């Protein structure tokens, strides 16, 4: 008993993964989240806070349990899908998994180029650098970190996440004297309240989404703890920690921004299509906030890039192995890693140079797929897969399924 008690204490490994998953979830989208989530007013936001914590934790725990349910320890999500659902379904889900994550990676490659370029021009007052060269240097640097070992990547993400959390928290505190009650006085009708909730749930789900890193995270837990029961306990605890700090820091930031602005100003920020920090910097004529904007965006994109790269690489390598019918044991992993890195370098670089405006649309098309894989697939597996049947009969399964269906329906509605 005491053995398991001591081994369940928080350790450096768990905390590092909490920060890494936090970094994966908090992309540059956090700078637009107060605008998108706050548009419907204050009260729907309160209800969302009560829902989004359990949603985030339970859905990601389900996906982690799914990865850990393989009879072969060390299997990634693409192998587990094939083991439980057969070869054809395995290929299809792996393809969908890849195409749900890959566009986000393209957006980050493009986004980091735009962020650094904008910082050089607007904050440093220098001429815009050569885009071809700038994008290559930035993307090649990010990908080369991913070619190092897991410990280096985790350490670097940890170093990026600390200032990110600190700045978000400091800005949230800084805005407190500016809070006003205009948002509290806006009471929506029951109909518009429910509609706002329905449309905003996916916004929050994807702002808190760290599913691309869950497979690599679950495998890492297995390597660290060996014992299946201990692995699952530590994985659940780490995911609960991640959901908690996401809820505290991100939602405090959202509330602080929403309480600082009036509903009309949020509409204006949406119309101007600028991040919340740019809007606040203009409103208060504060140069410091406008300096923090690009810094937060840079930290958020970089830390989120690493987590999404793990998922996209897993999907691409899984597809390659499934389509070529290679034996996983005989494949040279290092060569495959370098091959996928080269593919990502060329595609991300190409997109960053072209700088297309349709990227947001592609990302929203991936939304329903992510929700399917994160919410629905693990709950379906609990019903159908013998290895997961011990999780049956829990109220949390029903909650995750309903929330998943709500998120998918709202995303599909948003597309049309």
From TrEMBL:
Q: The organism's lineage?
A: Bacteria, Pseudomonadati, Pseudomonadota, Gammaproteobacteria, Pasteurellales
Query: Where is it located?
Result: Cell inner membrane
Catalytic activity reads:
L-serine(in) + H(+)(in) = L-serine(out) + H(+)(out)
What Gene Ontology terms describe where this protein resides (cellular component)?
Answer: plasma membrane
Which UniProt key words apply to this protein? Amino-acid transport, Cell inner membrane, Cell membrane, Membrane, Symport, Transmembrane, Transmembrane helix, Transport
Which residue ranges run through the membrane? 15-35, 41-59, 92-112, 132-148, 160-177, 197-217, 238-261, 288-312, 336-359, 365-383, 395-415
Could you list the residue ranges forming a coiled coil in this record?
Answer: none
Q: What is its main location?
A: membrane
Instruction: Write down what this protein is called.
Output: Serine transporter
Q: Does the keyword Zinc-finger apply?
A: no
Q: Which InterPro entries match?
A: Amino_acid_transport_2, Hydroxy_aa_transpt
Q: Which GO terms describe its molecular function?
A: amino acid transmembrane transporter activity; symporter activity
Q: Does the keyword Lipid biosynthesis apply?
A: no
> Per UniProt, what is the membrane topology?
Multi-pass membrane protein
């Amino acid at each position: 008993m005491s053995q398991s008690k001591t081994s369940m204490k928080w350790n450096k490994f768990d905390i590092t993964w909490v920060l890494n998953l936090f970094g994966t979830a908090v992309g540059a989208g956090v700078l637009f989240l107060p605008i998108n989530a706050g548009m419907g007013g204050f009260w729907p936001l309160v209800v969302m806070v009560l829902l989004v914590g359990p949603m985030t934790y339970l859905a990601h725990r389900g996906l982690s349990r799914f990865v850990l349910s393989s009879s072969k320890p060390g299997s990634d999500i693409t192998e587990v899908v094939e083991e439980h659902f057969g070869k054809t379904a395995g290929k299809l889900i792996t393809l969908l998994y890849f195409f749900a994550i890959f566009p986000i990676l393209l957006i980050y490659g493009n986004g980091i180029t735009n962020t650094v370029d904008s910082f050089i021009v607007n904050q440093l007052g220098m001429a815009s650098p050569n885009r071809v060269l700038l994008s290559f240097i930035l993307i090649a640097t990010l990908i080369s970190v991913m070619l190092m070992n897991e410990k280096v990547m985790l350490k670097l993400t940890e170093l990026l996440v600390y200032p990110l959390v600190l700045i978000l928290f400091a800005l949230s505190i800084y805005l407190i004297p500016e809070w006003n009650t205009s948002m509290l006085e806006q009471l929506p009708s029951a109909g518009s309240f429910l509609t706002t909730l329905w449309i905003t749930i996916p916004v929050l789900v994807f702002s808190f989404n760290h599913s691309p890193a869950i497979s690599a995270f679950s495998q890492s837990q297995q390597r660290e703890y060996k014992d299946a029961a201990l692995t699952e306990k530590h994985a659940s605890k780490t995911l609960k920690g991640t959901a908690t700090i996401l809820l505290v820091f991100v939602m405090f930031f959202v509330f602080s921004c929403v309480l600082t602005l009036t509903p009309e100003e949020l509409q204006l920020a949406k119309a101007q299509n600028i991040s919340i920090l740019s809007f606040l910097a203009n409103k208060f004529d504060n140069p410091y906030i406008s300096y923090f904007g690009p810094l937060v965006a840079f930290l958020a994109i970089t830390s989120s890039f690493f987590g999404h790269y793990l998922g996209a690489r897993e999907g691409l390598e899984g597809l390659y192995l499934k389509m070529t019918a290679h034996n996983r044991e005989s494949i040279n992993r290092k060569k495959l890693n370098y091959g996928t890195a080269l593919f990502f370098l060329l595609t991300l670089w190409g997109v960053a140079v072209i700088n297309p405006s349709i990227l947001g649309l592609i990302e929203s098309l991936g939304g329903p797929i992510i929700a399917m894989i994160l919410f629905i697939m693990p709950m379906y597996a609990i019903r159908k897969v013998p290895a997961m049947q011990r999780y049956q009969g829990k109220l949390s399964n029903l909650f995750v399924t309903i929330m998943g269906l709500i998120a998918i329906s709202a995303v599909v509605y948003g597309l049309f």
